[in-house]
Amino acid sequence: MLSTDKAGGERLDTSRGTNQTGVKLYNERLVLSLVRTHGPLSKGEISRMTGLSAQASSVIMKQLEMDGLLVRGEPQRGKVGQPSIPMALNPEGAFSLGFKIGRRSADLALMDMVGTPRQMIRTTFAYPTPALLKQFFQTSLETITDNMTRIQFSRVRGVGIAAPSEMWSWEEEVGAPHDVVDAWRNFDLKAEVAQLCDWPVHFYNDATAACAAELAFGEGGKYPDFLYVFFATLVGGGVVLDGSLYPGRRGYAGAIGSAPVSMPETGKPPKRLIQCASIYLLERMIRDSGGDPSLIWHNNKDWSALGDVVDRWVEQATDSLALAIGSAISVIDFHNVVIDGGFPPAVRAKVVARTRQKLAAMDVQGVAPVEIVEGKIGSDARVLGAASLPLLAEYARHRDLLFS
Predict the structure, then answer these.
(1) What is the H or E stretch that residue 98 is in?
(2) Predicted TM-score of the model (pTM)
């Protein structure tokens, strides 16, 4: 179904279904996406939301039930006619694995169809090395699969990997010896993981993967498009357009950490957001004040013991983030900016509040207003995002399916 945009052109409305032949897969994915976003839905509700005929909605939902992807709820009585039967996602309908590589830790998680982690294994280190992570994946994969039933194993849809881009270029931030960091230059992590399993392997930048988690299981499903910002050792981001994750031509879309955010001093280049708003800077500030920075990597629930150093970091980070957001919304008029990170909810709330205030104080005349909101996934967004990649590839609606 086509609708007219403000420029007078036609665009595809991806929230609507179609009764044309040849689009069965798209309509099935659309139904699954709606159920994921809104919760259990009846065939009548699906028909109203998509524009599909009642018969088409019934056929699609019956097929998804036969495939084990939807399960029936209790009949809803009290209305005229036959009781409606809401259909929900079946947690046992599909599984996926998420492999997250960070600069201080790595995780391997098994996730079910509704986004619940069934198993998660974590390791920590001073800095990541290719050999260490390959061994961790292999042994953790054996542990996880040994605890699965045969049917669950048969329903694994793939492995998603979330890792920082160009790990070898962040020697100073990672704090590892040069030869260790440089080893990443010729290490193909996706290919190495693919040799250790028989499933499809998907690879995304870690912040983009976190954005996928917010889209699939957090607040992101409520927004048609948004800019996503995730605070980790290095701050990064992602982009959602028309309800779909947009990685960009080479996977760098949403690389907000690389955005220049300050006026250059004489003879010096401008700083990037990554150099002004990353959590590794908080780590340095804590160390310089005589504190123990390990707390921020081992306790993502409460940083109150760190004192006012966190407030000072929040002020520094949000000064730069507001500038980066101001630039981003001048290019794409996002409905929302979603902010999350590897910090406690109380810190996230402060970051969101101060960013709102500072953006409101800027002269951004000529751009559409944007609402800055909190993400809901938190510290596990990257590993859950990695695990969501196979499920998104297999089941999420995507307009390109209409033309394939």
Answers:
(1) strand 95-101
(2) 0.81
